[in-house]
Amino acid sequence: MFVAVDDTDSMKGNCTTFLATEIIREFPELDLIGNPRLVRLNPSVPWKTRGNGALTMRFGKGIGRKRLIGRIGSRDIFCYDRCASDEPDPEEMMRRIIPHIQEHHEEESDPGLLISLRKPSQKLYWKGVRTVLSRGDVDPEIRAIGGITFEIGCGRGLIGCACGMAWRPRDSTYELLTYRPPERWGTERIFDPLTIRDVEHGYPTTFNSWEDRMEKVAMVPATPCPVMYGLRGDVQEDLIKASGEISTEPIERWMIFLTNQGTDDHIIRDPGSLVPNQSYLIRGSVSSKSRHIPGGHVFFDISTRFGKVECGVYEPSKEFRFVPDWLDIGDEVEVVGELRENPRTLNVEKIHVISTVEEHRKISNPVCPSCGRTMGSAGSGAGFRCRKCHTKASEPVTETAVRQIVPGWYEPPTAARRHLSKPLKRMGEIQPVEFVNGRNR
Ligand code: ATP
């Protein structure tokens, strides 16, 4: 039996992943089939709270391999690879889950709960992670699979429930989430940052936990939610081992979620047209120098098969803003990012520099071939002229400038990355030039 919940939290607190652990706690007589799943959907939906994450779980009678995936209080939580044919009663599950949603949702949220024996079509996942949907887009599919639902407010959470439940992973990662005891929620989190640095360096299969550039922890939230930290990686066993090496205040529970984080599933690679509130990989050639505006945001234009696209690199991207400064007109790039509606800019998540043009820098006026003296300017746009011999030249003496940027992939610091963005570490890429010594102009 598949269970999905979404839209229970607000910026003030709570966390749908915590609610998922409460639902798991509610059913000690049932087995989890596979890990609980944290499925991130379109990061551009205007009404998301933070990371647009939906939670789905499968319960039943487990058979096959049994794996430890968490602990709640003193109870170890296991999951099984497969399930037997006897399924739990969906109405009974609904009756027992509703009080948890009522307890753990925030006033301004619009929670949804979906329980179904069958999964929605996987097309719904791809639409949910890449486009903006309405209830009208998901309700027929919920009816078609015979799902039963519960909703509060406008029940928008059911969109995330249906799309999250529809996920069949093509690429996937794990996140080990740890939770604080309720009496500590909202207080300052106590942990040793250096143990987090050592884990990021010591476990190559983990990612996004530590920021080397800024020497800063990236895996500990700053919100008053119940989460202590989230450790992300490709291998579950590594996450369990590595979390044992991170020093924090006491943890009340932990759980490993299967996720689509770090997969780039939200990126439309070969778009027919560009629609706002969706994310794209667009190829083009740089057609302007960078422009800085107050607030530390930087913009540049690329010329593409869709015409001119303005790209924005915002202040939280910090030194990643050197990239637009280093680019030159004519450089070939692939820009990955979300197309905003207003202003219509592509909010850059990653840049692939494919090729760079040669940049020439003037070193002096040309020399007269007859007398050997340096020519003077012949007037604005008129080239150069030797005052004595009246010889002319159109170009100054130049040298080939050393370009700051070289072909390769560039990404912002961990804290400015989208949950869905595939980090270079997972792409097997290393940024060819590090951002040191500040801007070059
Ligand atoms: P958190 O990351 O803290 O769990 P959140 O960012 O997931 O919070 P929600 O409160 O869940 O924020 O709000 C997201 C809302 O958007 C949900 O109601 C969800 O159903 C809906 N939603 C998700 N994907 C889409 C989509 N593609 N189109 C339209 N609505 C969507």
Give the helices and strands, then pairings.
Elements (H helix, E strand, L loop, with lengths): L1 E5 L9 H11 L4 E3 L3 E4 L12 E8 L1 E11 L2 E9 L6 H15 L7 E5 L5 H9 L4 H10 L3 E4 L5 H9 L7 E7 L13 H10 L3 E2 L2 E2 L4 E2 L9 E7 L2 H8 L9 E7 L7 E2 L9 E9 L4 E3 L3 E8 L2 E7 L8 H5 L5 E8 L6 E10 L4 E5 L11 E2 L6 E2 L6 E2 L3 E4 L7 E3 L13 H4 L14
Parallel strand pairs: 2-6, 3-14, 15-16, 19-21
Antiparallel strand pairs: 1-4, 1-7, 2-4, 3-4, 5-6, 5-14, 7-8, 9-13, 9-14, 10-13, 11-12, 16-18, 16-20, 17-18, 18-19, 20-21, 21-27, 22-26, 23-24, 24-25
The structure holds adenosine-5'-triphosphate.
* Helix coverage percent: 10-25%
The DSSP helix count reads 9
CATH topology of the largest domain: Alpha-Beta Plaits
In total, the number of domains comes to 4
Q: Name the quaternary structure.
A: single chain
Biggest sheet character = 6 strands, mixed, barrel
Q: What is the terminal separation in angstroms?
A: 59 Å
Structural class: alpha+beta
* Global morphology: elongated
Strand percentage lies at: 25-35%
Bound molecules: adenosine-5'-triphosphate
Which residues sit in consecutive blocks of at least 5 with pLDDT less than 50? none
CATH class value of the largest domain = Alpha Beta
Strand order of the largest sheet: 2-4-3-14-5-6
CATH architectural grouping of the largest domain: 2-Layer Sandwich
* Total beta-strand segments: 27
Q: Mean of the pLDDT scores?
A: 93
Radius of gyration: 27 Å
